[in-house]
Amino acid sequence: MRRQWMVYTAWSAALAAGLVGGFLAGKSVADTRSGAVSVATTADAGMMSGAYQVVFARTYLCGVKTEEVTKVPRSEVAQTLTAHQGWEIVAAEPDKLILLKRENDLAPECKENGYIGISADGMLTLFHGLPEEAEVIQTFYRISTEKMEARLSPEEIASLKKGIRIRDLAEYNSVLSTFGEFQIGAGDE
């Protein structure tokens, strides 16, 4: 584990240095080829000492995606990468870096007000609020209502139609598991 951390840290630092160095080298080479004498201007100094735009994107199991955008001084990019181990670098541009973390959990808004129910077209669906409000967060699969009505009590069916409150990952997985047996597969339709 320690070796992986050291490799990740070294790789992150090399990437950050390469991005900044590559940008500056590219600018220098372009200036040399055009025959221009390279003189640092205020704009060039701003690019060298300026900030990277770093986007921290998260995806959650419940289908929610969030982004947080911050500015990080170029001199602190390697430290930022080290501090965010477990995040994937999905894009690196001269002035922007996008990091992604796949959360193995529900998003806070899913925990706060998530309900699993059946949509009007028979799909098992995660809603923000009660199903009657119809604010869909994530759609899973079509349910065979005939199979479900044959195997479940009327109370369980009414509960699903009303919406089953989801507060954490365990409840989310439990509901999906319970109703997964009523999923209409490609051969069932």
What's the order of the H and E elements?
HHEEHEEHEEEHHEH
Mean pLDDT: 77
**Integer count of domains:** 2
CATH architecture of the largest domain: Roll
The fold-level CATH name of the largest domain is Ubiquitin-like (UB roll)
Envelope shape: elongated
Low-confidence stretches: 1-48
CATH superfamily of the largest domain: Bypass-of-forespore C, N-terminal domain
Count of β-strands: 8
**What is the number of helices?**
7
Rg: 25 Å
What order do the strands of the largest sheet run in, or round the barrel if closed? 2-1-4-3
The fraction of residues assigned to DSSP E strands is 25-35%
Distance between the termini: 48 Å
Text of the CATH class of the largest domain:
Alpha Beta
Estimated structural class: alpha+beta
The major pleated sheet works out as:
4 strands, mixed
Helix residue percentage = 40-55%
Could you characterize the architecture of this molecule?
- Pfam families: BofC_C (PF08955).
- This is BofC C-terminal domain-containing protein.
- Residues 104-180 form the Bypass of forespore C C-terminal domain.
- InterPro entries: BofC_C, BofC_C_sf.
- This protein is an alpha+beta fold and 189 residues long.
- It folds into two domains: 2-102, Bypass-of-forespore C, N-terminal domain (Ubiquitin-like (UB roll), Roll), CATH 3.10.20.420; 108-180, Alpha-Beta Plaits.
- Helix content is 43%, strand content 27%.
- It contains seven helices and eight strands.
- Strand 6 (123-128) and strand 7 (136-142) form a beta hairpin.
- The protein is elongated and about 65 Å long.
- The relative contact order is 0.11.
- Residues 1-48 have low confidence and may be disordered.
